[in-house]
Amino acid sequence: MTFSFTLEAQQDKARAGVFNTPHGPIPTPAFAPVGTQATVKAVQPRELVELGATLVLGNTYHLHLRPGDELIADLGGLHRFMGWEGPILTDSGGFQVFSLGDNRKIDDDGVTFRSHIDGTVYRFTPETAIDIQHNLGADIIMAFDECAVPDDRAIIEPALERTHRWLERCVDEHARHGSLTQQALFGIVQGGIFPDLREQSARFVTDLNLPGYAVGGLAVGETKADMYTTLEHTTALLPSDRPRYLMGVGSPEDLVHAVARGVDIFDCVLPTRLGRNGAALTRLGRINMRNRKYADDPNPLEPECTCYTCQTFSRAYIRHLVQASEILGHQLLSLHNLHLLLTLMREMRAAILDGTFADYAAAFLATYQPVQTRRGAGAPTG
After folding, report:
1. Does pTM surpass 0.90?
2. pLDDT tens-digit series, residues 130-186
3. Are residues 187 and 291 in the same domain?
4. How far is CA 355 from the centre of its chain?
């Protein structure tokens, strides 16, 4: 099957479309729950279907280390292995490798690193990353890139050169596998917060005429203002007839701001990570369910929320589960948090289609209270 992207409507820069894949269509804007180790933590595949998820993400680095991509291939590929019949996106492992700090060594050919599990030495090259993703069998696969700190030009410039050379090698290796109609290879635009480097990267990556393009190297330490400015500048450089994927971004306000700047696809560990740490996302901001004031609160996490958690349980019960370290607390909070983000994406898509997105975004951002913290790169365990 040939991959295709249809742009259905656009309001200013915000876009609504459909990206067709061998495992089904992805209506955009779309948010992908992250299944780092072939599972979205504390959430069953059946529940993802009920939540309306249309795409999930798997992690090349983790699945190569454990249980092994060749084993997954022997068992029928990642879709069958994890019991998910919809589209899957796998990253290249680049971010996880580069987040290992002193446990990895970069050279022009690739990266040598020690496993965070047992210290075993591995080596990733562009060819390795493509070979692993070929074994996994995801619909969308990512080029191997170097994700550098966003504001140090002396580090970013050589990393960008490597990213571009590695992308060419990824394209060649992907063609060698002969799976162009079954796996869509996305290139990644890097360049930190520097407009000229983003322009240089966008020109190079888009010249390769790939099925889609990602924006990487954001939400890794820069301010939100810098992220939004860089994102707006970068999406304007990408072709309108291909999907645009912003890697690793998932807070509600960031999703709204990014859709307004022309992004189509997102992924992030945030909703399930917050769920495992006792926090709920709401339309007004995050709430910490460890807070004593919820101990006898009979209300749902969020009024008028239609998720299973809010329709069935009180804040008092959720707090009890969190305080008791009960697994059900992780499950119920993760379900609610994913429900909110997936619902938010559907609402934004509908607003773009009916021409009311600007009003929708303004109303949402007027009442949402973001967490005032500086970003930081996530740990490789995601």
Report:
1. yes
2. 999 999 999 999 999 998 889 999 999 999 999 999 999 999 999 999 988 999 999
3. no
4. 26
- Is 151 noted as a catalytic residue in this protein? no
Burial 44-62 (b: 16+ CB within 10 A, else e): ebebbeebebbbbbbbbbb
Q: What is the CATH number of the domain that holds 243?
A: 3.20.20.105
Q: How confident is the model over 314-366, as pLDDT tens digits?
A: 999 999 999 999 999 999 999 999 999 999 999 999 999 999 999 999 999 99
Same domain, 280 and 240: no
Q: Taking the CB of residue 292, how many other CB atoms lie within 10 A of it?
A: 8
Q: Which of 69, 91, 145, 254 is catalytic?
A: 91
**Which listed residue (139, 145, 264, 267) is catalytic?**
267
118 flagged as catalytic: no
- Residues of the domain holding 64: 4-268
- Please report whether residue 324 resides in a domain: yes
Strands 121-124 and 111-114: antiparallel
Domain end residue (candidates: 268, 301, 327): 268
Domain assignment of residue 376, yes or no: no
